[in-house]
Amino acid sequence: MSNLIKPKVVKILKPTKASIDELKITVLVENSVNVKNPSLIAKHGLSLLVETKLAGVDSRFLMDAGPGPDIALRNAGMIDIDIKKIDSMMLSHGHYDHTGALLQILKHMDHSIPVIAHPNVFNPKFAYKPALTSIGIEFDQPTIKAAGGELLVSRDSISLLGGVISSGEILRKTYFEKTKGFWTVEYDNFIEDTIIDDQALFINVRKKGLVILTGCAHSGIINTVRHAKSITGLKEVYAIVGGFHLDRADDTRIQKSVEELKEIDLKRIYPCHCTGKKAISQLAKSFGDLCIPIHTGDSIEF
């Protein structure tokens, strides 16, 4: 471990209520096939391209890289997206299905970019499938640096652009959202992993409100929404996009999550990845046409 580069942990001031003019989210990788474009590769994981416009200036960010080695890059090319134009990346957490293609994407770039993550993103990560299996990042910090990534780790929120911020470490307050089934090693002890490195992306869209992007929402989708409101000071949540990690949740957690989401008065909800068929079905019953499951290759504009 002595040869590893220790990333600098930075503390950022709390973000302001700045907003962007336009937002477009494109799903580069997700579990399900897009029937409109079957040439795209779907695989368990997630990668979202975030495009914004502010005062006539375009910016691009990548939330997660999807599984390796090059699915996100291939799909991007198939739908005429130039990954080289992204300004920065954020890792929602340190699982392979969100980080596997990170090195390939960085090597594809013609310039260095910040890679934002929680300090615990490189911790060992395991699950039983059914045997004990490593599910963490498959490379170390110096490798990211060598590939052109400027690793920026923080427990606090990071501003990517006025109106676009990372969540930082998400407070966990709900009684029904518990992280189970994951393991790690701390101080030579094999313990349950609460995936404290789980983060989301919060975007304030002018005249609409807050758009929340989640990788897996291991912190709990309701905890994530409450955290978003707390650190941004915004009360209106316009949409939630991403994985809600309800695929293995019991009926009580799914029901309570859907009930709490309904109270938020969302205008749109776009579930995918690890949300699970049962939870998506419940969301569809509760939200009707406002619930729109998304797939590989889909784009959403705000």
Write a short abstract of this structure.
With 302 residues, the chain is α/β, with parallel strands linked by helices. It has helices spanning 71-78, 96-99, 102-108, 141-146, 221-232, 251-263, 277-287; strands spanning 22-29, 47-54, 57-63, 88-90, 113-117, 126-128, 132-134, 149-153, 159-161, 164-166, 183-186, 189-192, 200-205, 209-214, 237-243, 268-272, 299-301. It has a single domain (22-301), classed as Metallo-beta-lactamase, Chain A (4-Layer Sandwich).
- Report the CATH superfamily: Ribonuclease Z/Hydroxyacylglutathione hydrolase-like
Q: What is the gyration radius calculated from CA atoms?
A: 18 Å
Question: Which band does the percent of strand residues land in?
Answer: 25-35%
The whole-number mean of residue pLDDT values reads: 93
The figure for the number of domains is 1
Helix content: 10-25%
> What is the 3D form?
globular
- The helix-and-strand class reads alpha/beta
Compressed to H and E, one letter per element, the order equals EEEHEHHEEEHEEEEEEEHEHEHE
CATH architecture: 4-Layer Sandwich
| Quaternary structure | single chain
Cα(first) to Cα(last) distance is: 45 Å
CATH topology: Metallo-beta-lactamase, Chain A
H/I helix tally:
7
- Describe the sheet with the most strands: 7 strands, mixed
